[in-house]
Fold these 4 entries.
Entry 1:
Amino acid sequence: MNSPLDPPREIAELRNALEAVRKSEEQFRTMLDDIPTLVWRTTADGSAEFFNERWFEYTGLAPDVAYGSGWMAAFHPDDLESLSKKWTEIVASRKASEVEARFRRHDGQYRWHLMRSVPQFDESGRLVSWCGTNTDIEDRKEAEERLSQAFDRIKKSEEELRTIIDTIPALAWSSPEDGIGDFFSKRWLSYTGLSHEQASGTGWVSAIHPDDLEGLAASWTRIRASGREGSLEARLRRYDGAYRWFLFQAAPLRNPEGKDVVWYGTNTDIEDLKQAESELRRREADLRKAQAELAHVTRTTTMGELVASIAHEVNQPVGAMTLNANSCVRWLSQLKDESPELQEARKALQRIVQDGIRTGKIITRIRALVEKAESVREPLDINSIFHEVIALSKNEMEQRQVLLRLDLAVDLPPVLGDRVQLQQVMINLILNGIEAMTAVDGAARELVIGTQLDRGNVLASVRDTGVGFDADKAEQLFTAFHTSKRGGLGMGLSISRSIIDDHGGKLWATLNDGVGATFHFSLPVPSDR
Ligand code: ADP
């Protein structure tokens, strides 16, 4: 039974229920105050009506200041404008959203906070309030800031690096392991005139000289296979189409795992170096040629000296021989015996005397030539000198089956000259003609010797049906030591020309219409004739 003083049971139950609600509300509030974040609630139009304890602790604001719109004073002045704008938008949107701003701590320090807000509606769907949290994101912001600064620094140093790459006086590039280009410095692109798109991949190959492509491909493959620094040379086309020699140098860079390799390279212009090199090689070749010529001249000069001393040595015995033969002729002529044998012996001795005198003269002239003595000038009939020379070379012509034709002008005026020297010229031309024809197998060999008078000059020619010579090399035949014959000296025509020059005339060669060549010389007829 209940005592009449006892409250009715319903009241007691109500009190208990209220007590339970108060307890759970207290627990809830304690929980709100304890969670490590700032919690708040506003009315539907954004006026603050609740903050948890941590909020007050953090801001240091008194409740009567904070409620309503007083809380706004805790935000950084610089963020206030954008924040109140954003908050108005959020309230109008009636949607959950978040915003970042600097929020002042009780000690005056501003720290970045992330504010999340969620709208609350009643059963009829009416917006009744906003709940929200402020989370301290200062440390995250700081980390973000540091990251972005680091990023800026990397970007800056990348830009500096790129400036360096574009400024160094070489063309720079890089390529992944497969050897396909993926980076080209500004200089590379402006040298070749290719765009980055044109050069990328295998496009850069179009700037390599076609003749160097194969070698470059082989070397580039070899360098990549070696995995080590290497170089090669090739010609690279400039924007204007000119090719210049470049030194390509490449070095590999492995990633930290030692797997993927990127090749970095430079191309350095070595055109001037190359040209200097080839100029040097050309000069070396010239030098070697000059050395060889010098050696030849030295040998020939020595031979000239040898000839001079032989001529000197031979002259005396030949003189003595001629003298003795002459004495014999005289002694024999005093004999009365007229037997045919004796007559033949006398004739033979007379021929010995004549040949001896001729030999003596030749030796004297040879010595004059090599010792550069003054040559003799006497009136000479060119036709009769040709006859003398032909007599001397008759044997040679017969042996080599050469047909001789003479086309000599009659009544040729005499010229002033040195008989032996002119004989030497004629012999040289005739023997050269015979040799040129002997070099042709099976063809008819015909030597035509002609003379004529032409405007105050005696013109002589020796025409053969031999091998001839290269049309553009006619003048070379007359240079000293030029010879096409094994064992030839190449001095004959050069000496002949200097003899004819010495006589005030000219010596030259022409190619025949058909086969063979003709050598001509002209000698002036003295003006008193
Ligand atoms: P060598 O007879 O010792 O070679 P030469 O000075 O007499 O010297 O001749 C020089 C070169 O000129 C010869 O080696 C030959 O190649 C060329 N030559 C001379 N005469 C003739 C000719 N009649 N026909 C073709 N080539 C000739």
Note: The longest strand covers residues 110-121.
Entry 2:
Amino acid sequence: MTFEDLGLRPEVLQALNDLGFEKPTPIQKEAIPELLSSQRDLVGLAQTGTGKTAAFGLPIVELTDFTKKHVQALIVAPTRELGMQIASDMKTFTKHVKGAKIATIYGGASIDTQAREIRGGAQIVVATPGRLIDMMKRNIIKLAEVQVVVLDEADEMLNMGFKEDIDSILEQTPEQRNVWLFSATMPKEVAKIAKNYMDNPFEITVGTKNTTAANLKHVYYTIKERDRYPALKRILDLHPNIYGVIFCRTKRATQEVADKLMQDGYSAEPLHGDLSQGQRDAVMAKFRKKAIQMLVATDVAARGIDVNDITHVVNYNLPEEVENYTHRSGRTARAGKHGISVALVSPREIGKIKSIERIIGKEFEKGEIPSGDEVSKAQLFHLIETVKTTEVKEELGKYLPTILEQFEDLEKEDIIKLFVSSEFNPMLEYYQKSYDLNASVSSRDRERGDRDAGRERGRNRGRNDENKQRFHVNQGEEGGLNKGAVLRLVCQHSDISSGEVGRIDLFREFSFFEVDKKFADQVLQGMRNAEFNGEGLKVEFAGDKKGGNRSRNGSRGSNNNGSRGGGGYKGNGGGSRSGGGSSHRKGNSGGVGGGGDRSRRRRRG
Ligand code: AMP
């Protein structure tokens, strides 16, 4: 089946052609004909990376009358990043369609600019729930003529506490509008939305719940705690063409690992919430352009990263919440591509691997950290491929006689040795001193692992505990809250012991905690006067705000600061070929990414 067969308008076919989309993905094949031929609601169980944006976006473009100047389609997404990505896709699909206007509205940016986009006659609006509600309240946006509402990543929106906002949005759109809901999982709360607002929806499932893509391989390496960073470097060195995201648990660790990598000459930059939005946008832009090869990110900041071609996700540490592993690994193996998710674990953490295997429904492979010799060979091979595919500029011709004269007395083999050594000595020197980084796992570690995995299962079972009351707090990580602070505040103000406080989920702008129901009123009363960092906290029963049973970090972050790619084997005497920091891919010299990236040179040590 081709896009022509789907009956899309020629301007859209042209745009798809420009994009290089040759044929529809499975979800597009199923959804597009149905959405175009019948005015139906839809529930799509699908993750990002399946092509779902076009699956709902293309029918929207077909169904919209671009001669009119009012909002006809509304796409609601959990985060600013995802919203911007969807809007960018919609703009691309409509770039040849006359009169098409797409507005993007999200928090944290000027409402006036966004209001102008709406007043300018946008027919399609992509929005995050909070800002949309705000603009609805101020009468900036009217939804009376909306024909389609798309809820993208619905489970994520509910986890982030947007249930009430979604209800109000759906209630303020005309009754005859269609709702197209997409979700990676189908917890009860999402099913409830489908039940309340949809009529006999068409259902599509792409991939099964919680399983990760078949083209995604999971590999773990056991290392001693103190070898975490050298092990990371070895893995990166084994894959000179890597284009990846390295996850750390905290903002501080993220910055530290990124700093070390940058100092060691790797093309890496950090992405975390301590950076300003502008910095995060800048680093993301560089990463998208492949001007940097690696992002070192926190879970929160990396939510919503929607970049194709990521070859590796590296779990520098496993996530605190094992469920977050799926979100991390889902950054790679997108759009049918292959990807590898790598985890560095200490022998004590083996149990977590088992818990994750249960969640992803797939086994990890056990990897061996390569020896210095293997890494050196991989790097040498890469260097040779790079040299062989290097373009020889015409201007070199005028210097050639002088160059040849300089090498007159040397044999070909000597010349090769000298050139390779001039590039490769630092690498050889670094790996000369290398030792085996693989840690053995003792039977005690394994037993502990089994116990930990058992406890984790118990903890997961407890999550839907009917005996617990969940509370919503109007501050989150951005305001400096952490789990310890939440625990302290709850205990201090409500006079209960820390053992009575259950699960705590922190998000960027808000958080949740749970206590046994018998303390619910006591906590609600007690927290009335709670303050954090000099600001009064608003603590309410989460009730309808309840965030599902998985913990996901909702965010819009991504961030940065200034290094440039490139590096350069410092100390190699001669001029480096390093191309000023941009790592354009070309050629094909091994590595999952398949692009020969020449500009990354490293200084070892
Ligand atoms: P999505 O699930 O919408 O995030 O899509 C994942 C990626 O797949 C997007 O970056 C699209 O550019 C790409 N994509 C979507 N549909 C197609 C298609 N039919 N052919 C090739 N690439 C596609």
Note: Residues 214-371+434-458 form a domain with the Rossmann fold fold (CATH 3.40.50.300).
Entry 3:
Amino acid sequence: MNYETILHEIYQESKTLPIIGNVSISIPELTKVDPDKFGIHLISIEGEDFGIGDSNEKFSIQSVSKVLTVALAFSFLDERIWERVGVEPSGSAFNSLVQLEYEKGIPRNPFINAGAIVIADMLVTHLENPKQDFLDFIRMISGSPTIDFNLKVAQSEKDTRFRNAALANFLKSFGNITNDVEMVLDFYFHQCSIEMTCKELAHSFFFLANEGKTISGIQVLTKSQVKRLNALMQTCGFYDESGEYTYKVGLPGKSGIGGGIAALYPKNFVVSTWSPRLNEKGNSDLGMNALELLTTKTGMSIF
Ligand code: GLN
């Protein structure tokens, strides 16, 4: 497969598509990002890198980080994490509160904010230095020791945390947060503020395409855990647009309101896109279109 030519074609064709959406306004610091940034990076399972556009510029990975916190929690708690969070698509917005009430504080899945906050609570309990240990995990799986939090973004999210604080307090009232709410939120805002380039993001997700092994050969999860995490991404990775995303793209993937997407074809490649303009569901419009072009042109999708 000539990925270089294909990425070039996708990049050119994407530029002719109608411009849809705008940068996220929910975190003030993210409104400063140039909406017209656009990058794609693909790493093949053989470890060959292909990048185009702004693929070497850092951006806020936001909810894409939720896959990596679940991976870390999964690695030491295994199936026990599902006692506190479900594996069903929510059909609601990523920051919705409604389901929590009638489902008694058990979030539908770990990719909506409520679920990710429960996973953050697990990590706060299990890690000695939660924020630093999580960062070290990311640096290890990506092979990139310079990956870091953006403290301004974390602070900006903290300053406007009303909805996430409501979710966390609501979860606490059901006994599904065991640590101090502010401590858990602080961890969650930092995980979301992590910045990566498209290349670093694709490298971080490599183990999910490689039966649990990172590029450097470290076994992070078992084959079976990887199957489960990829299945969750497929069914829940784009919130209430997961069906539409699956229909168009046909690869497990995860989006974030920083405009990033990471997606993968097991045993073949990992691809990441970055375009900060979001549609009304909070997913990157151009990123989804670029991935649709990729699976259409290559015929490489899990379906
Ligand atoms: N940090 C964001 C929030 O909690 C993440 C949401 C997202 O990327 N969809 O609202």
Note: The chain is about 45% helix and 10% strand.
Entry 4:
Amino acid sequence: MEVQKIMQDLERKHPGESEFLQAVSEVLESIKDVYNQHPEFEKAKIVERIVEPERVHMFRVPWVDDNGEVHVNIGSRVQFNGAIGPYKGGLRFHPSVNLSIMKFLGFEQTFKNALTTLPMGGAKGGSDFSPRGRSDAEIMRFCQAFMDELYRYIGPDEDVPAGDIGVGGREIGYLFGQYKKLTHRYEGVLTGKGIEWGGSILRPEATGFGAVYYLREVLKHDGKEVKGIRVAMSGYGNVGWGIMKKIDELGGKVTYFAGPDGYIHDPDGVCGEEKLNFILEMRAKDPMHCKPYADKFGVDFVEGQKCWGVKDVDVYMPAATQNDVNLEWAKKIAESGVKYYIEVANMPTTNDALNFLREQKHMIVAPSKAVNAGGVGVSGLEMAQNSERLVWTAEEVDHQLHKMMENIH
Ligand code: GLU
């Protein structure tokens, strides 16, 4: 394969879709040496096929707010690759959502899902709808309107959406209710459901737990354990929160975490129920500000800054969103002397920054497609439970998750 030629063709077909082109280029650069040892791949045009989404659905989502005003959003579902199972992947509701972001996430999901060893293809969907500041009733009406279109394209053996940024248990509930109404079917068509109606008990924390299990395997190579390590991270959503909880359980400390408004430095770590519960409350009240944590617990808050580059930690975990770490930040990270860079969010590092970090001899860089696969892995387990009409215990799910992350690593 000639990466440049493939990228030129792709750019012609998907002009201006920078996140999508970035994600493909990263994967092609990383596999080209092995791929090119297999002329049979070249002959069958495997790469040319795998970089093109199988299908893209786009639809209009009109809905009415509490004041009676009509809004029109765009909804989409990119069914990227169904070679090894029904399409699987989350739905993102965020103003930044566009087709480029959906394609990048669907492309990455294909590889991530395959890594779990479960039979799941890759997809992603979502809308440019912003749930911020919206009432429950508005969220419900939006989700219903979204499902009025989406239900045609999904099914337990066809495509099984889940949550992502802006889509959690509440949204999945509204979506599932509307799906049932439209189809008259009670089936495992969405994951991330509430436990009372078919959800997996560990799903909200699973991505974060999986990331820490992955980190644990990485540390084992150096004869180290999670106990005693200090972590700087970005994000404190479901994924970030799961990391904080598991790190605390295993005796480590998240001493820095960053949100949209700046970063927190808590030298004692985000430990114990009070702090962990406070983060849940803080996030539910206002997802854009983490400063209230500093006010409540009397720790430092650095406004408008990211915590990349701090020296008094052992591990960095970017767990917020794409392109959180650019080359400038990567240089600060490298200078800090910290050894472990564990990607957690989908594509949290720009390509030039990632290449730069990988070149640093003193550093270990772990890729997000493997690190965050535990979340979708547990979704795969939820699908299995729904097909069997069984409910597994948290211990059973956690055990499977742990095994999965051990194998991926
Ligand atoms: N949105 C999550 C991810 O990025 C979850 C997907 C799923 O559970 O289907 O993997």
Note: The chain has 16 helices and twelve strands.
